[in-house]
């Protein structure tokens, strides 16, 4: 019997699980067989140890042996409102910020962005990247990646922070985990003054990331880095 | 007369500066001409406003009008001891951590690294990337990128931090700016237990970056992100 560290995603952690699709091919490539124990997760925070009962060319049947809640999530759900970026930069940010614990990405259209909108294919790709990064960092939650909306359509948030040059306030002096937390980071050209005003009205506090100019793809990783440096 | 925001690097900020090489071509592409004001920096923290006296196909002559110290540096020099990484990951880390204020990269060879050493060409490329990133983030210091040494060859440091999973200590609770600060981050496979012991002997304190597994190229950006989130 092998016990595999590798984690497979399933729709739901019912007592008996039948599954087909690419994960089955993946199991066969790994030479898994009936009797082997594997590790499952459902994308909502639950995981399980399971045993393979049967594995043929197209279908696997598994029995859940033990369920447990994965404790690798941040204390509260964190949403990153992320301005559209050029090229592969969005993918880089989604990958790194998934590792850092973000549970939802809300893409946003902004005034100084180099790209006006995002195609459906690219959105699908970002979702796949979020799923891969979630697996790799052993999280049990796969972050949502929500299609772009305008900044105006963003809700008023309970607690929010926007990375903004020239600010003195620090994120860690104001961060609390009493409820959901939002972060916002701008496009290559930064947020405009009126966009920052709008974000303030929606309860986002401008916070510093030091005195230097950061690229749009560095700022969100630095901001979430500050959050996880507290040990959460 | 034009006044250019774009910054050009010079060897030294003497009263009169003659220069040839690629920066001259760059000035000609930007259609700069005698009488225009430009912004110079010497890579050690000093900048200057200067006037172009003469610009021909190969040479530019400039007169320094005003020198000033750039205040975008961290309170003390920061060195990142960075394990060798595969592919373009080193370049990504050098770029982002230059923006975040690192003033020296000491590449290190480690036990679980996927690459044993670094070719001279790649070292030259990393130095070019550090220079570009320094310009873009408007820093006046171009970080050094030092050729790889073994972990044993690292000096004992006055104050150091190593990102290490499973630790409770936090970087910001122990960071002070009384002298030089060092950070260390590992390769794809992480530091071995004996490497962490060695780093501790050299005065590096293991610190947390949260409960999830970060990729080797995310950890240094997150760690420096925590540092700059204090406003430095």
From TrEMBL, chains A, B:
Cellular compartment(s): Cytoplasm
Domain Ribosomal RNA small subunit methyltransferase E PUA-like: 20-56
Major place of residence: cytoplasm
One record GO biological process: rRNA base methylation
Sorted UniProt keywords: Cytoplasm, Methyltransferase, rRNA processing, S-adenosyl-L-methionine, Transferase
GO cellular component: cytoplasm
GO molecular function: rRNA (uridine-N3-)-methyltransferase activity
E.C. code: 2.1.1.193
Pfam family, one: PUA_4
Function comment: Specifically methylates the N3 position of the uracil ring of uridine 1498 (m3U1498) in 16S rRNA. Acts on the fully assembled 30S ribosomal subunit.
Enzyme class of the recorded protein, top EC level: transferase
Cited SUPFAM superfamilies: alpha/beta knot, PUA domain-like
S-adenosyl-L-methionine in keyword set: yes
Residues annotated as domain Ribosomal RNA small subunit methyltransferase E methyltransferase: 73-227
Protein name per Swiss-Prot or TrEMBL: Ribosomal RNA small subunit methyltransferase E
Catalytic activities: uridine(1498) in 16S rRNA + S-adenosyl-L-methionine = N(3)-methyluridine(1498) in 16S rRNA + S-adenosyl-L-homocysteine + H(+)
PANTHER family, per database record: 16S RRNA (URACIL(1498)-N(3))-METHYLTRANSFERASE (PTHR30027:SF3), RIBOSOMAL RNA SMALL SUBUNIT METHYLTRANSFERASE E (PTHR30027)
Family classification: Belongs to the RNA methyltransferase RsmE family.
């Amino acid at each position: 019997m092998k016990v595999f560290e590798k984690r497979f995603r399933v729709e739901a952690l019912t007592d008996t699980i039948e599954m087909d699709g690419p994960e089955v091919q993946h199991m066969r490539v790994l030479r898994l067989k009936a009797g082997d124990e594997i590790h499952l997760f459902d994308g909502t925070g639950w995981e399980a140890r399971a045993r393979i009962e049967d594995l043929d060319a197209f279908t696997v049947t598994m029995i859940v042996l033990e369920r447990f809640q994965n404790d690798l999530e941040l204390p509260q759900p964190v949403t990153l409102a992320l301005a559209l970026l050029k090229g592969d930069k969005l993918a880089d940010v989604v990958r790194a910020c998934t590792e850092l614990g973000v549970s939802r990405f809300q893409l946003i259209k902004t005034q100084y962005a180099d790209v006006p909108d995002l195609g459906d294919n690219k959105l699908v790709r970002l979702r796949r990247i979020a799923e891969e990064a979630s697996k790799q960092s052993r999280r049990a939650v796969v972050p949502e990646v929500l299609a772009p909306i305008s900044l105006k359509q963003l809700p008023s948030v309970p607690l929010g922070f926007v990375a903004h040059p020239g600010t003195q306030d620090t994120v860690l002096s104001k961060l609390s985990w009493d409820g959901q937390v939002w972060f916002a980071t701008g496009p290559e050209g930064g947020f405009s003054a009126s966009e920052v005003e709008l974000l303030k009205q929606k309860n986002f506090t401008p916070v510093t990331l030091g005195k230097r100019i950061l690229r749009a793809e560095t700022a969100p990783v630095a901001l979430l880095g500050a959050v996880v440096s507290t040990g959460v």
